[in-house]
Design brief:
The complex is a heterodimer of chains A (about 1000) and B (about 90). With about 1000 residues, chain A is of the alpha+beta class. Chain A is built from 24 helices and 49 strands. In chain A, the strands form 13 sheets. In chain A, strands 8, 9, 12, 13, 14, 15 and 28 form a seven-stranded mixed β-sheet that branches. Chain A has a six-stranded mixed β-sheet with strand order 40-41-42-39-33-43, sandwiched between helices. A six-stranded antiparallel β-barrel of chain A has the order 44-47-46-45-48-49. In chain A, helix 4 packs parallel to helix 6 and helix 7 (about 310-320) runs parallel beside helix 8. The relative contact order of chain A is 0.07. The longest helix of chain B has 9 residues, at about 35-40. In chain B, the strands form two sheets. A four-stranded antiparallel β-sheet of chain B has the order 3-4-5-6, with no helix packed on it. Chain B has a two-stranded antiparallel ribbon with strand order 1-2. In chain B, strand 5 (about 65-70) and strand 6 form a beta hairpin. The chains are: A alpha+beta (about 1000), B mainly beta (about 90). The interface between A and B is medium-sized, with 25 and 25 residues. The structure holds zinc ion. Zinc ion binds near residues 57 and 63 of chain B.
Chain lengths: ~1000, ~90
C-alpha cells in the first residue's frame, strides 16, 4: 500500500481540499476529502485490490464510478450500524467511515481463499444443479463448503438500531434522474405549471456533467446546471430529492424511491429526528425517465485484473475527483467516446501508451491531439492483460478484415491501467420494469425503449440519445409534454427532435477472438458473479442457451449489480456460441429493486410492537399484573395460564382445571367475536349462515350453530341468542371474529342486498367473562344483580338482559367447559371492575382465573372440537360428527348443496374421534400420524400408511390420564379399534374411542 | 400497486382493498344439478384480457363493488357499484 493519497493529483477536481476526512479500509487508516466517494478515496490512497471475487476469490479492483460497479462491494461500519454490502462507488465519504472488503480472509490483498481460483474447473456453469443431481450423499460432502462460501457478504448479527420511514406521495410529473435531460425536463414541466418531483441518485444535480464537464450554449455544463437548479429551488411546485434512487416502477405509475437521508453522515453524528433512509411510494400522473446510460466493457482474458477500468470511469476519477487511476494507460475502444475519456486522462498527466481501436475503418471524432501524440492501433484488440494482482502489460493483436479472427502475433504494452470503452447501454431498467418493450438500435448497438406500457417517456441517454444537446432538447420536450398532459402549459414549444442519434460509430457487440480456447475461462462476462465466456458457452452447449435459462444456469446478471456491465456482453457470447448475433436473442427481464434495499427500509416503522396493532381486552392489565403467561391468539394476547411462583406451566394448568371442575373459575372471553344482528330479515340471515334451524329459536333462548362455506367445509361455530323479535346476539370464535364479520358483510352486500338486516361487529364493545364451575351460581348470587338465577328460570341455553353490580349486562348460560357456566357480557369499560369484584367475592369459594390452556383441556375432556385446531378447511360438518346440527327442513343454507356431493359422502374420510394411549402417562404430540396397529411393527412392506392424525392432546387432571382428539379415516365406525400413534418417531399403542371423555350425559353443565 | 377507483370514495391505493375474485357469479338455487353447482364453486374464468371482478374497500367505506380490469396490462377500465352493470 502506498503513502497517503499518493495518487491524488496536485490540483483540480470537484473536491474540497481544505478539509480532510479520515476513514479506514480493512483496518488501514486513510484520508480523503469532502466530495470523494469511498471508491475515489481508495483509489487516491493507492488501493488496487478492493475485494476478492465471489466464487474464485480472484483479486478485484475498482471498475466503475457508479451504480454499475461489479467489484467494489464492501461492508460498512459494525454492530448495530453495520451495512453488509454497499458499492464503494456510491458511498459518500464521511469522517470516521469504516469499510471492509468482502469474500476474503484475512484481507483483500492477502486472501487464503485465493487457491479456489486454481480449482475453477470444479465449479463450472450449472455447478449447483449438477451437484444436486449427484448421489444424495455428495451434497452432504459439499454442503458446508458451499454454505460457507455462498452469499456476497455476512448478515449483521446485531439488531439494526437505525430508524426507517415509509412515505406515500403524489405529483403531476415525476422526473427520475437529474442529468442534463432530467434537469431540462424538470425545468420545462415546472415552467408549464406542473407539480413536479425530481429524483436524483447522487448528492448533487448535474449527472454526467459532474463527471466530465461539457459546454452547453457557450457556457460550462456546471453553470448550466446551477441555473436550472436555481429555477427549480425557487419554485414551490418543484421538489427535489437527492441521494434517492428510484428502485421500482410498479403498476399505475407508482414508483418506489429509496432516499438515503443520512447514509452520508457518520452513525454517531446522525440526527435522531431523521430516519437513516426513507422509502417513498410516489404515484405520478406522468413520469419522465432520464436515467442515463452505462458504459459497456470489452472482453479479453483476465479482464477482471485490478487496473482494468471503464474508460469513462477512469476519466471521471481524473477530472471530477483528481485521482490518477494509473500512470501508463492503454485505451481499448470500439467507438468514438473512448477518445473523450482518453483526452481527460491525458489532461491529468496520465500517459496513453496505446489506443487500441477494434474498428477497421477511419472514424470521425478521434481526438486530433491524441492522435498526434499516441499510436492508434486500428483493427486491433486487447486479447489479454498480464499482472494478476495489478495490470502490468496488455497484449494487443491485429484483427483480420472480418474482425472475428486474429491476424497476427500479439504485442505487449507495459501499462498499469487498461481503459475499456465498449459503447453505452441506455439504463432502461425502470422503463422495462414499467412493462415497456425494448428494441435493438443498430446505430448505437444497444437496446432502447420502443413501446410504453404506462404513462411515461424516456429522455436523454436512457432513450439512446447520447448527444448532449439532443438529450437536453428531448428532456425539454418530454417535460413540457408531460405537464401538458396533466393540464398545464401549452405543450412542447417545438416538437421533440426525431432523435438524430449522433452516433459514436460503435462496432457491433461481439465476442472477440481470444489467443487460445482455454483463455475463455478467464474472460469474465459477469465479473461480479465470476461468470466467464467459457461458462456461457458451456451453458449453451448443454442446452441452456436461451438467455433466461443461461442467466439462471450460470448466474450471469443475477448479482447485486443486476449485470449492468455484463448483460449485453453475455448475450453476445451466447449468440456467438449459437452462431447468431446479439440482436437475434431476446433480452432478459429487469426486476426491482434497481439497487439493493435494506430490509429495514422496506419495513419502515412496522417493526417490533408496531408490526401489528396488539389487541388488548379491558382485563389485560389485570392478567399481566397477576403474572399471567400471555400467548398470541391472532392479534390478541391471552393468558395461557397464571403460574404461581416456582410453579411449572403444566402444574398451573392442572391446578386451574381442578378448580374449574370442583370450585369456580373466571376466564376472560372478551376476545370472542360478537355481532349484533338486527332487522326484519335477521332470522332469514341466520338460517342461511348456520346449518341448523334458527327460525324456531324463541326470545331469551340461545342456540349453538355451525357455519360452513359453500363447499360444505366447516368455517366457524358459536352461539347465537335471541334478544328480541328482530334482534340477535351472535358470538364467533376469537380467531375468526373479523373473518366472520367480513364474510357476512360480503353475503349481505353481494348476494342479498335487499334484505333488511344489519350485522354489526361489536366485539370490542363488550367485555366477556366466563364464570364456570359447580360454585358458579353461588358466586353470582353474592353479587348485586337483576338476574333470577334459579335453575328453572335461568336454564341451560338461555340469555338474560339486566344489570350486575350496577352495570348493564347480558347473562348467557352456555358451557364450553362442561360445568355449570355463565358468560357475562358488560360494556367494555365495566369489564375490569366486574372481574375484580368476582375475584373478591369468590375468594372463599376457591376461585381461580384460568387461561386458554386449561380451557382447551376442559373442552377436550368434553370432546368439543375447536374450529381451526381440530378442524381445518378440509373438514365437513359430517366429518365432525355434527350430523345432528344439519337441518333437514331448510331449503337452503350456505354449504347445504355441497353436503350431497359424492366426495363428502364417500367412505374413508377423516372423522373426528377420541384417542386414548394404552399407557395413560403418555401424552402424544399433536400432529402425530396414526397408523393401523399392525402397521407400526411390520417394516418389510415399507412405511405404513397413515390413517389419521392427532389434533389435540392433553394430560387430563380430571380423568387422571392422557386424552387426545384425532381425525381418523372412517373413525366413527372404528371406535374401540387398536391403533398405533407415531409419537415423535416412537410408536405408541392406543385405542380409538368416543371423544366424550367426561360427563357424556351432560348432567353437570345442566346443573 | 394498483390505483383503484372506488365508486364511493374515489381513487385509492390497492392496499386498502381486498379482491373477491370474479364478479357476477350467480349462486344456483337449491335445485341446481351437481354440474351447475360445481361450476359455481370451482370454475373461474382466467382471461388474458378484460375481467370483471369484485373488490372490497376494506380499509375505506367497507363496501363491495365491481371493477373491470385488464389482467395483462392491469388497466382498470371502470368501477361500478354492486348490483349495477358496467358503463358501456
Ligand atoms: Zn370506498
Amino acid at each position: 500500500m502506498s503513502t497517503a493519497q499518493s495518487r491524488r493529483l496536485p490540483q483540480g477536481g470537484r473536491i474540497d481540499r481544505t478539509r480532510s476526512l479520515r476513514f479506514s479500509f480493512d483496518g488501514a487508516a486513510m484520508t480523503g476529502h469532502p466530495g470523494d466517494t469511498l471508491a475515489s478515496a481508495l483509489l487516491a490512497n493507492g488501493v488496487d485490490i478492493v475485494g476478492r471475487s465471489f466464487k474464485r476469490h480472484r483479486p478485484r479492483g475498482i471498475f466503475s464510478a457508479g451504480a454499475e460497479e461489479p467489484n467494489a462491494w464492501v461492508s460498512l461500519e459494525h454492530g448495530a450500524h453495520a451495512i453488509p454490502c454497499a458499492a464503494a462507488t456510491q458511498v459518500e465519504l464521511y469522517d470516521g467511515l469504516i469499510a471492509r472488503s468482502l469474500n476474503c480472509w484475512p484481507n483483500a490483498s492477502f486472501d487464503l481463499g485465493g487457491v479456489l481460483d486454481r480449482f475453477a474447473a470444479l465449479m463450472p456453469a450449472g455447478f449447483y444443479y449438477k451437484t444436486f443431481m449427484w448421489p444424495a450423499r455428495a451434497w452432504g460432502r459439499y454442503e458446508h463448503i458451499i454454505r460457507h462460501a455462498a452469499g456476497l457478504a455476512r448478515a449483521p448479527l446485531a439488531p439494526d438500531l437505525e430508524r426507517y420511514e415509509r412515505r406515500f406521495d403524489h405529483c403531476d410529473v415525476l422526473v427520475i434522474g437529474a442529468g442534463p435531460a432530467g434537469l431540462a425536463a424538470a425545468a420545462a414541466a415546472t415552467r408549464a405549471g406542473a407539480r413536479i418531483l425530481l429524483v436524483e441518485e447522487r448528492a448533487a444535480l448535474g449527472g454526467s456533467l459532474l463527471d466530465l464537464d461539457a459546454a452547453i450554449d457557450a457556457r460550462s455544463g456546471l453553470d448550466w446546471t446551477a441555473e436550472r437548479t436555481a429555477v427549480l429551488e425557487s419554485c414551490a411546485r418543484a421538489r427535489i430529492l437527492t441521494r434517492a434512487s428510484a428502485v421500482g416502477y410498479h403498476d399505475h405509475n407508482l414508483v418506489s424511491i429509496l432516499e438515503r437521508v443520512q447514509d452520508h453522515v457518520a452513525p454517531g453524528s446522525r440526527m435522531r429526528t431523521l430516519p437513516r433512509q426513507r422509502l417513498w411510494h410516489v404515484r405520478a400522473r406522468r413520469v419522465v425517465l432520464a436515467t442515463g446510460s452505462f458504459e459497456r466493457p470489452l472482453l479479453f482474458a483476465n479482464n477482471d485484473t485490478p487496473g482494468v477500468m471503464l474508460a469513462h470511469a477512469a476519466a471521471t476519477y481524473a477530472e471530477r475527483y483528481a485521482v490518477r487511476a494509473g500512470r501508463r494507460a492503454v485505451l481499448f475502444t470500439d467507438n468514438d467516446s473512448g477518445y473523450r475519456a482518453a483526452a481527460a486522462l491525458q489532461a491529468a498527466g496520465i500517459e496513453i501508451v496505446a489506443a487500441v481501436d477494434r474498428r477497421p475503418a477511419t472514424s470521425d471524432g478521434i481526438n486530433a491531439a491524441l492522435e498526434a501524440r499516441v499510436p492508434i492501433l486500428r483493427a486491433s484488440a486487447v486479447v489479454a492483460v498480464r499482472g494478476g494482482r495489478k495490470v502490468r502489460a496488455a497484449l494487443v493483436a491485429p484483427l483480420d478484415a472480418s474482425g472475428e479472427r486474429l491476424a497476427g502475433a500479439a504485442r505487449s504494452f507495459d501499462c498499469d491501467l487498461v481503459c475499456v470503452a465498449g459503447g453505452w447501454n441506455p439504463a432502461v431498467h425502470l422503463f422495462s420494469q414499467s412493462g415497456g418493450k425494448l428494441r435493438f438500435e443498430p446505430a448505437i448497438q444497444a437496446y432502447v425503449p420502443a413501446q410504453s406500457a404506462q404513462q411515461e417517456r424516456s429522455a436523454g441517454a436512457c432513450a439512446g440519445t447520447f448527444s448532449l444537446l439532443d438529450g437536453i432538447a428531448q428532456g425539454e420536450a418530454a417535460g413540457s409534454q408531460a405537464a401538458f398532459e396533466c393540464g398545464h402549459g401549452s405543450g412542447p414549444v417545438s416538437p421533440p427532435p426525431a432523435a438524430p442519434r449522433r452516433s459514436s460509430n460503435p462496432a457491433p457487440v461481439r465476442e472477440l477472438p481470444s489467443l487460445a480456447r482455454s483463455a475463455r475461462k478467464n474472460i469474465f462476462v459477469d465479473i461480479l458473479n465470476d461468470v466467464s465466456a467459457a461458462d456461457l458457452a458451456l451453458a449453451s452447449h448443454e442446452g441452456y442457451g436461451a438467455p433466461e435459462l443461461a442467466k439462471r444456469y450460470t448466474t450471469a446478471g443475477m448479482g447485486v449489480d443486476q449485470g449492468r456491465t455484463g448483460n449485453i456482453n453475455a448475450l453476445a457470447v451466447l449468440a456467438t456460441a449459437q452462431g447468431l448475433v446479439l440482436e437475434q436473442l431476446p433480452t432478459t427481464t429487469f426486476r426491482p429493486p434497481y439497487v439493493p434495499i435494506a430490509f429495514g427500509a422496506m419495513a419502515g416503522r412496522d417493526i417490533g410492537a408496531l408490526y401489528e396493532p396488539l389487541r388488548r381486552t379491558p382485563i389485560s392489565d389485570w392478567h399481566e399484573a397477576h403474572a399471567a403467561l400471555m400467548e398470541p391468539v391472532g392479534a390478541w394476547r391471552r393468558p395461557a395460564c397464571y403460574p404461581r411462583a416456582a410453579e411449572s406451566f403444566a402444574a398451573a394448568v392442572r391446578r386451574e382445571c381442578i378448580a374449574a371442575r370442583n370450585a369456580v373459575t373466571l376466564c376472560d372471553v372478551s376476545t370472542l367475536g360478537k355481532l349484533d344482528i338486527h332487522g326484519p330479515d335477521a332470522v332469514r340471515l341466520l338460517d342461511m349462515l348456520y346449518t341448523n334451524d334458527f327460525s324456531t329459536l324463541k326470545p331469551g333462548r340461545a342456540r349453538y350453530g355451525l357455519m360452513l362455506k359453500d363447499d360444505g367445509m366447516v368455517f366457524d361455530d358459536g352461539t347465537t341468542s335471541r334478544l328480541g323479535a328482530d334482534r340477535y346476539f351472535m358470538t364467533t370464535t376469537s380467531g375468526h371474529a373479523d373473518a366472520v364479520a367480513d364474510w357476512i358483510e360480503e353475503w349481505l352486500q353481494c348476494e342479498w342486498p335487499r334484505w333488511r338486516v344489519f350485522a354489526v361487529p361489536v366485539t370490542t364493545q363488550w367485555a366477556g367473562i366466563l364464570v364456570s364451575g359447580p360454585r358458579a351460581r353461588v358466586l353470582l348470587e353474592r353479587l348485586e344483580t337483576s338476574f333470577d338465577l334459579a335453575r328453572e328460570r335461568c336454564p341451560f341455553m338461555s340469555i338474560h338482559q339486566g344489570s350486575i353490580e350496577g352495570a348493564p349486562a347480558r347473562l348467557l348460560r352456555v358451557s364450553f367447559t362442561g360445568e355449570l357456566a355463565y358468560e357475562l357480557y358488560v360494556p367494555a369499560r365495566y369489564g375490569l371492575g366486574l372481574w375484580q369484584r368476582l375475584m373478591d367475592r369468590g375468594s372463599d369459594l376457591g376461585i381461580e382465573p384460568i387461561g386458554t390452556e386449561a380451557l382447551h383441556v376442559l373442552r377436550a375432556e368434553k370432546g368439543f372440537f375447536v374450529v381451526g385446531h381440530d378442524a381445518d378447511a378440509t373438514v365437513s360438518a359430517r366429518d365432525l360428527g355434527a350430523e345432528w346440527l344439519i337441518s333437514r327442513t331448510k331449503s337452503d343454507f350456505i354449504g347445504k348443496h355441497s353436503l350431497s356431493r359424492p366426495e363428502l359422502k364417500r367412505s374413508g374420510r377423516l372423522q373426528f374421534v377420541g384417542l386414548e394411549s394404552d399407557d395413560p402417562g403418555i401424552v402424544v404430540a399433536e400432529g402425530s400420524p396414526i397408523v393401523a396397529a399392525s402397521g407400526a411393527t411390520s417394516r418389510q412392506h415399507g412405511p405404513a400408511a397413515a390413517i389419521g392424525r392427532v389434533t389435540s392432546s392433553y394430560s387430563s387432571p380430571t380423568l387422571g390420564r392422557s386424552i387426545a382428539l384425532a381425525m381418523v379415516s372412517d373413525g366413527l365406525a372404528r371406535l374401540g379399534e387398536a391403533v398405533s400413534v407415531i409419537d415423535r418417531g416412537t410408536p405408541r399403542a392406543a385405542r380409538l374411542c368416543s371423544p366424550r371423555f367426561y360427563d357424556p350425559e351432560g348432567s353437570r353443565l345442566h346443573g | 400497486m394498483l390505483l383503484i377507483p372506488c365508486p364511493h370514495c374515489g381513487e385509492r391505493n390497492e392496499i386498502e382493498f381486498a379482491c373477491g375474485g370474479q364478479a357476477h357469479l350467480e349462486r344456483p338455487g337449491p335445485q341446481a344439478d351437481a354440474t351447475r353447482w360445481a361450476r359455481y364453486l370451482y370454475y373461474r374464468a382466467n382471461p388474458n384480457g378484460t375481467q370483471r371482478e369484485r373488490w372490497f374497500h376494506a380499509a375505506g367505506c367497507r363496501r363491495w363493488f365491481n371493477v373491470e380490469r385488464d389482467t395483462a396490462s392491469h388497466e382498470i377500465r371502470t368501477a361500478y357499484p354492486m348490483g349495477e352493470a358496467p358503463a358501456p
